[in-house]
Amino acid sequence: MPIEIDIAHVARLARLALDEGELESYRAQLGVILEHAARVQSLEIEPEVEAAHPLGFANAFREDVLRPSLDRDEVLAQAPSAVDGYFLAPPALESE
Amino acid sequence: MIDSSISEAGRRLRSGEVTALSLLKTALDTAGRTEAQLHAFLTLDTEGARQAAAQADADFADGIDLGPLHGIPVALKDNMCTRGVETTAASQILAGYLPPYDATVVTRLRSGGAVVVGKTNLDEFAMGSSTENSAYGTTYNPWDLTRVPGGSSGGSAASVAAGSSLAAFGSDTGGSIRQPASLCGVVGMKPTYGTVSRYGLIAFASSLDQIGPFTRTVEDSALALQAIWGHDPHDATSYAGDYPDPTNGLGRGVEGLRIGLVSELSGEGFEPAVETATGAMVASLESAGAEVSEVSLPTFDIALSAYYLIAPAEASSNLARFDGIRYGLRVDGSTTEELMSRTRAEGFGPEVTRRILLGTYSLSAGYYDAFYGQAQRVRAAIQEDFARAYQQVDVLVSPTSPTVAFEAGARTADPLAMYLSDICTIPSNLSGHPAISVPIGLDDAGLPIGFQVMAPALGEEVMYQAAAEVEHLAGFSISPTAIEGAL
After folding, report:
1. CA B192 to CA A42: how far, in whole Å?
2. What ipTM was estimated for this complex?
């Protein structure tokens, strides 16, 4: 059963600027992989619980106290662009 | 090359027969002679390593002993953060990245006196089974330079096989330690999920990723594991209870041990030489006193399918952080979205792009339940299958890889064929259980064959007990033929 994939929509969701040729190539490859992956639908038994941590842990909490963190300047030194202690990026919304 | 074990090198370091600086020199000389052919390393931290080795020698002179890895040259897969030392995950998107902190595993290794030689090559973001997906070039197999070392931790496996490190650390999400260990003829081990901190490991699939050691011997593997595992408050999935002593099982033999051979991990797709060697080892274990039976785990047949939905789904979420804003590559755009989309298209290689798209698709509206949701149910069913099997046997065994090392380029055009490389290793990632690959022999072409031992959660003691006997019975010698002249 061929699987329907709106690859341009998926690429937009994933924030990947791919050209038409790349999109078509990935769409075809994903089709083959997903047809194999669809074998998960052949599972006949219904497990009691959905898988989580293999040792059965739930949430881990710590005391709500301040602790030393990474040095701000050292962190910002790795950013492509930073100013006055902030990461610098273009506008998130287009302006008219 | 360094051809001794960690325990033997440690004894010589403490008796003064060798120094940490001379061990390091041997490791670096070996790298110098073999790297042009193998390309196991992305970065050699020669200066940092010299300082650590000199410190270790000073410590020994002062009677300070930091444990089994003190003064031992080790290598790290380049997806573990090392403060001030370039960490790329073999991706263009992280070219030049200097982490502002050490991963917990690195902190533990340094405080245990280990000498970090450098950072090893991998498939980009640990996605692959051949180390051909590195943005910085392929690593080759020390037993045959036309073949791959396996992956994704191929650089770590090749380094230990070649003797440019005595132990190397990798990460295993679907077999990325055990499969390259098998293809390179060394010991590779994935611990119980949650026992080794993932803090500072560049995340691929967080519910599956686990750091573990490559070593020349099974005893070394247990020693290297002890050096890195333990509870870490920096990792919310870290195990806080009692840890077993992995060295307890060594040398105990397998008399009365119940060993189950997995029926599903044989037949179509498995090379005859691999099946023959596996069968012979199982027979030897039985002669050594083990109670051997064949065990069926039917869900293993769909484990690979579940894995290739769950791992890419988690990856698509984890890799959202590479957006051109906080670190790494930036390709400019007029809006944030344009900047991100251009940066990511430019910075990620084809396999990473493929998996991000796959994961985004299987998590998207309308497809979630049929793909990701169903894969999670399969994962639970696999855990139930394992639980049933461990009521009958103490450990499960199988080949580690259905084939020996394959030719470079042979599977790059067919992603699904590449994914099938991990068919034997994936179930233990989905269950979170420990598993180890031990080399047991060579095929007719002189390529190594690995044997996998799996155990229940926190079953490292019994896993090492069986693995040590496998090693003893196999009598395998790590002498990679392709680089013999260079050593």
Report:
1. 28
2. 0.93
Judge whether residue A96 has pLDDT over 60: no
Which of B274, B263, B201, B270 is closest to B238 using CA atoms? B201
In this structure, what are the phi and psi dihedrals at residue B442, rounded to the nearest 5 degrees?
-120, 150
Query: B337 vs A87: CB contact, 8 Å cut-off?
Result: no
Q: Which among B316, B338, B431 has CB closest to A14?
A: B316
Look at B299 and A49 and tell me if their CB atoms are within 8 Å.
no
- Mention every residue, 6+ apart, whose C-beta is less than 8 A from residue A50: B376, B377, B379, B380
Q: pLDDT band at A44, cuts 50/70/90?
A: confident
Q: Does A14 touch chain B (CB under 8 A)?
A: yes
* Nearest residue in A to B97, CA atom: A78
The alpha carbon of residue A3 is apart from the nearest alpha carbon of chain B, in Å, by 11
Domains of chain B from N-terminus onward: 6-253 (3.90.1300.10)
Q: What percent of chain B has pLDDT over 90?
A: 94
B190 pLDDT band, cuts 50/70/90, is very high
Contacts of B431 in chain A (CB under 8 A): 54
* Active site residue ranges of B: 77, 152, 176
- Work out the pLDDT band at B201, boundaries 50, 70, 90: very high
Residue of B80, B244, B289 lying closest to B172 (CA atoms) = B80
